[in-house]
Amino acid sequence: MKLALIGFGQAGGKVVDQFLTYDDAIDGGFVESAVAVNTATTDLRGLESVPQKNRVLIGQARVNGHGVGADNELGGEVTEADIDEIQHAIDRVPTHEIDAFLVVAGMGGGTGSGGAPVLARHLRRIYTQPVYGLGVLPATDEGGIYTLNAARSFRTFVREVDNLLVFDNDAWRSAGESVGGGYDRINREIVERFGLLFAAGEVGHDDHVAESVVDSSEIINTLSGGGVSTVGYASETVETDSGGLLDSLTGSADSGLEDGAATNRLTSLVRKATLGRLTLPCDAGSADRGLVVATGQPTQLSRKGVERGRQWLEDETGSMEIRGGDYPRTSADEVGAVVLLSGVTDVPRIDQLQQVALEAQETTEQVQATAQDEFASLVDTGGELDALF
Ligand SMILES: Nc1nc2c(ncn2[C@@H]2O[C@H](COP(=O)(O)OP(=O)(O)OP(=O)(O)O)[C@@H](O)[C@H]2O)c(=O)[nH]1
């Protein structure tokens, strides 16, 4: 599917930069345009692939290019104030050619976490295409302010987008590694999973096995139930010496065996993708909708395997809305399965964030109530005080 990518804040910009590189590398064709928005000049300067003219600095009047320092209320305010500057850059996007917008942001900082929901609301008011979010959750050891920002922003971001795709940094850092040390690796994991999914909807219908190729409308329909989504991916390297003279000589018995192996391989890849590490770990059974995409050499893409995987996911989720199809890639030496689980509800990390948001709200209310009590008692004693002077 064709996307207009908008990276908000430092993490958002870097992930969008990486999406551009990946799209080029796999010849995916899913990025129509890429824009980066930030309050910090240095973050915009550090980008490599987003075109200079599509880098938008906002909030200059308030923070003078120095960032908002993890203050996400300020991030939201400067976005509201400078929304026309962002719109100006989006005006250059050929929006009639895109299937959707994707707003990418780290939820723990100030600019992306505060600004991304404001931009999503703006885009949904103006355009008819769906507006998706890709939210990156902070690692748990990053500190309270990051968790609190994420807890607050998450609720707003889910409300303002048509579907929120989530990646949890915490689940993806390696043992003993600080999350910052592994951003490059983590960002590659992000773009591979979501990139393969979006590129899948971009295959022309004259390509191999055209009738079973995933269409962008299938991705859109899978995401149209709203809520929160997560993606799983599993792959295997395969020998690709098929299609030569040998094949035509070995006859149908061997090719029957190969078909069986390809079917079994794909069925287990779908299970591995679903039950392995998801971009946002959750109980896959709680998904409302799903999409299974088989990717790799056209000869390895067993339609029966995809169908079995799809049926298995139907049983796992109890959902009747599980779609399936292929993304043939002639240059790939791996066969893989991407599984999109949409509208997931049993997500421990989100429960934890909601708890944090609730506690923060209670603390704020307590502080306000104590301040009101103190003020009231000061007013009560006002007469006595007056008498003293
Ligand atoms: N996956 C990933 N996460 C990142 C990256 N850079 C920062 N983060 C995460 O994003 C959160 C911080 O958000 P940033 O995007 O740096 O902050 P910002 O939106 O630019 O906001 P301010 O810096 O406060 O103005 C933290 O939770 C980081 O772990 C990155 O390149 N990849």
Q: Helicity range of the residues?
A: 40-55%
Summarize the helix and strand pattern as letters: EHEHEHHHEHEHEHHHEHEHEEHH
Strand line-up across the major sheet: 3-2-1-4-5-6-7-10-8-9
Q: How many individual helices? A: 14
Radius of gyration: 24 Å
Tell me what the CATH architecture of the largest domain is: 3-Layer(aba) Sandwich
Strand content: 15-25%
Associated small molecules: guanosine-5'-triphosphate
Q: Determine the mean pLDDT.
A: 89
* Alpha-carbon distance between the two ends: 75 Å
Biggest sheet architecture: 10 strands, mixed
List low-confidence stretches: 243-253
Looking at the structure, the CATH topology of the largest domain is Rossmann fold
Instruction: Choose one word for the global shape.
Output: globular
CATH superfamily of the largest domain: Tubulin/FtsZ, GTPase domain
Number of domains: 2
Helix/sheet category: alpha/beta
GO biological process, one term: regulation of cell shape
GO cellular component, one term: cell division site
Domain Tubulin/FtsZ GTPase: 2-225
Family: Belongs to the CetZ family.
Which features does this protein show?
globular, alpha/beta, binds guanosine-5'-triphosphate, Rossmann fold, 2 domains, 50% helix, 60s Ribosomal Protein L30, Chain: A, ten-stranded mixed sheet, 389 residues, single chain, 14 helices
Characterise the protein shown here.
With 389 residues, this protein is an alpha/beta fold. It has 2 domains: 3-200, Rossmann fold, CATH 3.40.50.1440; 229-342, 60s Ribosomal Protein L30, Chain: A, CATH 3.30.1330.20. 50% of the residues lie in helices and 18% in strands. Strands 3-2-1-4-5-6-7-10-8-9 form a 10-stranded mixed beta sheet, sandwiched between helices. Strand 4, helix 6 and strand 5 form a beta-alpha-beta unit. Helix 1 (9-26) packs across helix 6 (111-126). The N and C termini lie far apart (75 Å). Bound molecules: guanosine-5'-triphosphate (GTP). This is Tubulin-like protein CetZ.
